[in-house]
Specification:
Layout: E1 2-12, E2 15-21, H1 36-44, E3 48-54, E4 63-68, H2 70-99, H3 103-128, E5 133-137
Antiparallel strand pairs: 1-2, 1-4, 2-3, 4-5
Helix pairs in contact: 2-3
Length: 138
């Protein structure tokens, strides 16, 4: 289970809006400030993400810990990254076969497949509704 602290900012229409603070690095080693992820975090500054979940018994200013199963995260990542890549490769191969190896048409077909894959990945992600759940209050 992947855990992330969050704070409830407001409640509306049975939904709780949460603010999640992202850290600079992955915090998995002592090189936190010296690795590439830490440098990227400092470059882009502090980032706060907002998301909504069903409110149930949450109140504004509550501090909670959100959880997401590793399996959900991996499957969502595979869909979002591999679907556009697969579309790019398949469309480029088909375009190459249909046009007799014309580089321009092959590239255009590949880009079409990339955008089709992005659209398909977006549609699949919306259908899945992978959302974290509140594990506990802190």
């Amino acid at each position: 289970m992947i855990e992330q602290p969050a704070r409830v900012t407001r409640i509306f229409d049975g939904q709780a809006e949460l603010e999640v603070q992202h850290e600079e690095g992955c915090s998995s080693c002592s090189l936190r400030g010296g690795c590439g992820m830490g440098s990227l975090g400092r470059l882009f500054g502090e980032r706060k993400r907002r998301l909504t979940i069903p409110a149930h018994d949450l109140q504004p200013a509550d501090r909670v810990v959100l959880g997401l199963a590793e399996r959900q995260l991996v499957s969502a990542g595979l869909i979002l990254y591999l679907t556009p890549l697969f579309g790019l490769i398949v469309f480029a191969l088909v375009g190459d076969a249909l046009t007799g190896g014309s580089d321009g048409w092959t590239a255009l077909a590949g880009l079409t497949g990339l955008f089709a894959g992005l659209g398909l990945a977006r549609w699949m992600a919306r259908r899945r509704e992978t959302r974290p759940r509140v594990l506990r209050r802190t």
